[in-house]
Design goal:
The complex is a heterodimer of chains A (about 70) and B (about 220).
Chain A: H1 3-49, H2 53-68
Helix pairs in contact in A: 1-2
Chain B: H1 2-29, H2 43-70, H3 73-104, H4 113-134, H5 138-152, H6 155-165, E1 174-175, E2 178-179, H7 183-224
Antiparallel strand pairs in B: 1-2
Helix pairs in contact in B: 1-7, 2-3, 2-5, 2-7, 3-4, 3-5, 3-7, 4-5, 4-6
The chains are: A mainly alpha (about 70), B mainly alpha (about 220).
């Protein structure tokens, strides 16, 4: 294989890996965001049945998430 | 979460621009090397990926020590994120090195000290990632991973020094006596190195943010149950 073909292959490989990794990060992030929404929805549904308890839990979760980073 | 959310878009744009500059420097600005021809241009991305892999493992090393000292989850998340990114770049070092070796040495792989120690490094951190996926208990997982993150880092200086300690066919560009590069080639290399460091920081911020989001999901899940 001539040198320039191997050079192109090396650069293509680097970009495929980097973009593949970034794509994986964003896909996983979207999934986790959907999970947070689904869980907060489930908590809100429970709040309708047990008013007060879920609201206190939601406030606690928000405080904890804010402290993390 | 809030700090990471604020800096991530700016860092992403900055790393995109830096990468464009690096591509320009490596493919257009730097002159074609006389002996190896265009193949030598692999160097401008191969060495920075190695540097960034080492940087990732160094961050994981420091964060692992900090986790064992403090027990704080933030350090564990940072160590995990940095080790994973380091492993991505270590994979690229091995693959781009194999492409270079095919043309330069007429073989995809040889058990040269630099190549062998790099493969050992890759295997250590592959083990680190497998360990993280296989221990259920959060605290034990973080503690075992921290210990491996500290012990595994011992191989990084060995990889770096391999071409100085042992007889090797791997090229030596950076020597104690100076740098074996033309000034324009050195400039292209430094631009590329800076771009890869910015890319590393961007990926680290995104990855740590992902860990924080995962923790948030886990917290809500426990509360819902």
């Amino acid at each position: 294989m001539p040198g320039w073909e191997l050079m192109v292959a090396a650069y293509a490989l680097i970009w495929a890996f980097v973009f593949g990794y970034i794509f994986w990060l964003f896909r996983r992030q979207e999934k986790l965001r959907r999970d947070v929404e689904a869980l907060s929805g489930a908590l809100a549904a429970r709040d309708e049945r047990q008013p007060g308890k879920s609201q206190a839990l939601a406030r606690g979760a928000k405080r904890k998430a804010g402290r993390r980073l | 979460m809030k700090i990471a959310d604020r800096v991530a878009p700016g860092l992403t744009v900055l790393s995109g621009l830096a990468m464009l500059a690096a591509i320009y420097a490596a493919l257009l600005y730097a002159p074609t090397e006389r002996v190896m021809g265009p193949l030598q241009r692999i160097f401008y991305f191969h060495v920075p990926t190695a540097a960034v892999a080492f940087l990732g493992f160094a961050v994981a090393f420091v964060a692992s020590i900090a986790y064992l000292a403090s027990g704080r989850r933030n350090w564990d998340a940072l160590a995990y994120s940095a080790a994973e990114i380091g492993e991505v770049f270590a994979s690229l070092v091995l693959l781009t090195g194999m492409l270079w070796a095919r043309a330069a040495w007429n073989t995809w792989w040889t058990w040269d000290p630099r190549l062998t120690t790099t493969l050992v490094l890759w295997l250590i951190y592959a083990g680190y990632l497998i360990l993280r996926g296989s221990v259920e208990d959060e605290v034990r997982r973080a503690r075992y991973a921290a210990v491996l993150g500290i012990i595994g880092f011992v191989d990084v200086p060995v990889v770096f020094m391999a071409i100085r300690w042992w007889r090797t066919i791997h090229p030596v560009v950076f020597e104690a006596s100076g740098v074996n590069l033309e000034p324009s080639m050195l400039t292209a290399f430094l631009v590329s190195l800076a771009a890869f460091v910015i890319l590393f920081v961007t990926l680290l911020v995104l990855r740590v943010r992902l860990e924080a989001l995962g923790d948030e999901v886990e917290y809500w899940r426990r509360r819902v149950q």
